[in-house]
Design goal:
The protein has two helices and no strands. It is mainly alpha-helical and about 80 residues long.
Length: about 80
């Protein structure tokens, strides 16, 4: 009996999620000056985060290949 309610709840949740994703965003927005300033700050943070991510990825790849080369080609 409770299985029917779980199925109904799952269908209702999926319908609600579909509705929320298809609904256009609300038009209430902050003033243009505040919005552009916050976007500039966010863009600067994203650039910093992206640079850090690229640097850490390159370091991880270098470490991986260094370990691989040691394991494959260097005599122990």
């Amino acid at each position: 009996m409770w299985n029917n309610y779980i199925t109904l709840l799952a269908i209702a949740a999926l319908l609600r999620a579909d509705y929320e994703m298809r609904r256009p965003p609300e038009e209430a927005s902050p003033p243009a000056a505040a919005q552009s300033r916050s976007e500039d700050m966010l863009a600067a943070k994203w650039r910093d985060w992206a640079a850090k991510a690229v640097r850490r990825y390159a370091e991880a790849q270098e470490k991986k290949w260094r370990n691989w080369n040691q394991a494959m080609f260097e005599v122990k």
